Amino acid sequence: MYLGIDLGTSSMKCLVIGEEQEIIQSVSSDDIPLSNPHSGWSEQEPSSWIIALEACLKKLSEKMNLGEIKAISFSGHMHGATCLDSNHQVIRPCILWNDTRSHQECEEIMKDTSVMDIAGNIAMPGFTAPKVLWLKHNENKNFHSIDKVLLPKDYLRFYLTGEFHSDLSDASGTYWLDVEKRKWSQKLLDASSMSISQMPELCEGTDQTGVLKKDIAERYGFSSQCQVYGGAGDNAAAAVGLGLYDEGDASLSLGTSGVIFGSTKKFLKNYDDAIHSFCHSLPNTWHLMSVMLSCTSNVNWFVKTFDSSLNEITDHLNQTIQSQDLIKNAPFYLPYLTGERTPINDPHVRASFHNMGIETNRSSLIYSLIEGISFGLNDNYQALAKTGIQLNNIFVIGGGSQNENWIKLLASILDRDLAITEASDAMAAFGAARLAFLGFNNYKPEDVLSSPLVQKTISSDNNLTGVLQERFIEWKKFYIG
What we know:
By secondary structure, the chain is α/β, with parallel strands linked by helices. It has a domain of 234 residues: Nucleotidyltransferase, domain 5, CATH 3.30.420. The protein has 18 helices and 24 strands. Strands 1, 2, 3, 5, 13, 14 and 15 form a 7-stranded mixed sheet that branches. α11 runs antiparallel to α14 and α12 crosses α14. The model has no long low-confidence stretch (mean pLDDT 94).
């Protein structure tokens, strides 16, 4: 059996598969605390990840014998700067992927424009390097205490094995990696005053990165021979879960962030629309990715702020999409709660409702919320399509994939079919388990990575497509960069 550990922004999932890649057990630990000390800041204590991991392993141990697990791998939210001192102690809270404080540091890094050709991307506040450079400028003592910088899931690896490794898909989001050559870049490290000695060792997602420490194995009931493998950033892991490694298949993730992911067999770039060009977690494979910073986090914000519920949002969405008149008269919503990456790359923009009138009510605001998120995803889709990447099939994953009327709205805006798969809300954990399975058995991806069963294909609704595409044109006018 093989264990995939998926560290999300607000929860952790642990999923175990068997020799036929069948799911044997799945558990989760929710409510990992998030701190927002200032507008645009987003931090988390790494100790909360260990607490969540312990809770998951305790639940698993009550359902199965952990000693039967042969290998472990990881998925995790990307870019987070987890800084350790020379005693391997955490220096400060981890600065997360959706933190936008380091926009000035991005400009500093890109003064030499050649760095974009190496990194394959524009420097963005979400990436790790500008976060660490911000520490140099604002928390100099902490900066000079840094012995190692780890990405969030790689801190879990260190906790379990005592080893410092990072897979290439996750490392691509640091802005320290030469993405085409798949190695650390001295030039990029110099641009943020870092050294290669402060970096973990690079690996492919299917490479072994050690075994469990003896005390860890004994504490949780694992075999002392349990091996640990590289893993992947969350979206690359979800792609492995879906079996996406050939160009032509893509995923659309409706999670805290919104992501469209497509695999490529060569290194491609598109700076102008803030498309991410990263290594895949599988050897000799890359991927392109558009990122919308706030996706379902908009829904969570609305539920909390207006004492709403997911059921209420679903009910009002279902009612509104039955009527073109209700859609035409709804206000517009820009879903930029924490700034935006693709395609506008603006860390300062914030969310807003527009064109509200005396007729605006709670129901129309709820519809506008979901429509605005969907328009943001269409913005992402159009930016990705400009690269020429094939997007023949799109599989919808993440928590939002459970709302079929939302998928119907999206399909109508994109004017294309979208597929909902089995176990969509745990695909990153499944992909992490698959990476452990691949690495332990030394399998080739094409031999064992099949796509999951499609539960339903949702097509665009001709009654919606026209009015939505007209509203999208109007929606675009409300953002002023």
